[in-house]
Amino acid sequence: MIDSSALKNLARLASHVACLTVLAGCASQQTIEQGDITDPFEPVNRSIFRFNEIADKYVGRPVAKGYQFITPAVMRTSITHFFDNLSYPVDIINAALQGKFKQAGLDTSRFIINSTIGILGFMDPATDVGLVRHSEDFGQTLGTWGVPEGPYIMVPFFGPRTMRSGGGDLVDITVNPQFQLFSSSVQTKLNIFWLTHRRSLLIGIDKEVERAFDRYAFVRDAYLQNREYLLYDGNPPVEEFEFEEFDDEEFE
């Protein structure tokens, strides 16, 4: 059985390897830009994406479907609430680091209410009293303070990231109770269960991804758009189009 420290070391190693790959290739490869997308290692990323698809096809998806089949929908909703609440200190800390002190205070109230009245977060009474859920991470914090998103990278087993979001994940793990609070034995079981549950939440979009003409591009674009959405708290800037002025004489 793999212990929790091994899982955390694997996560760190995968992110570090991806980062080193990007940095090493910058000297020899030209960045591929598609609109606002920076994907300098698309060939490598596509290879890793295909590997992840195979692993998901034969392990991740079957296990997630079995879990979904035997677990009632109501119970899965409660489990989602539990993991959201367990990771909420990450949201609180990053909200404060971004200067959103009022939000951090409200999020702290939400965490306390759901952890107590909500029975360790399995219920969500905070939403019922008007305390909406926010989603903040250190990648967003870096973006708030001007750190660029960086190249898009596909990490083995862990899926899409950017340099900024991948680095942010490593920081968030250090303050996430899910990875720090429990004994090694409990943590291992909890993280495996969390990964299975999280994959089950994505089963509903499998067919949409499969129908895409280019699954790699579909996943990449969706991930980057979601990161932009989170960075701007649901209000990303609207692109302004510049129209050329034509002289009337050109049409005469």
User: Could you say which overall geometry the principal axes of the C-alpha atoms support?
Assistant: globular
Helical run tally = 12
Portion in strands: under 5%
- Sheet of most strands: 2 strands, antiparallel
The rounded Rg comes to 21 Å
What does this structure look like?
- The structure is a single chain.
- The protein is mostly helical and 252 residues long.
- Helix content is 62%, strand content 5%.
- It has one domain (4-29, 38-234).
- The protein is built from 12 helices and 4 strands; from the N terminus they run αββααααααββααααα.
- It has a two-stranded antiparallel ribbon with strand order 1-2.
- Strand 1 and strand 2 (37-38) form a beta hairpin.
- Helix 2 packs across helix 10 (184-200) and helix 4 packs antiparallel against helix 5.
- It is globular and about 50 Å long.
- Residues 1-35 have low confidence and may be disordered.
Provide a short characterization of the protein structure.
By secondary structure, this protein is mainly alpha-helical.
List the helices and strands and how they pair.
Blueprint lengths: L3 H22 L7 E2 L2 E2 L3 H29 L2 H14 L1 H10 L3 H16 L8 H4 L9 H7 L7 E4 L3 E4 H11 L3 H4 L3 H17 L5 H6 L3 H17 L21
Antiparallel strand pairs: 1-2, 3-4
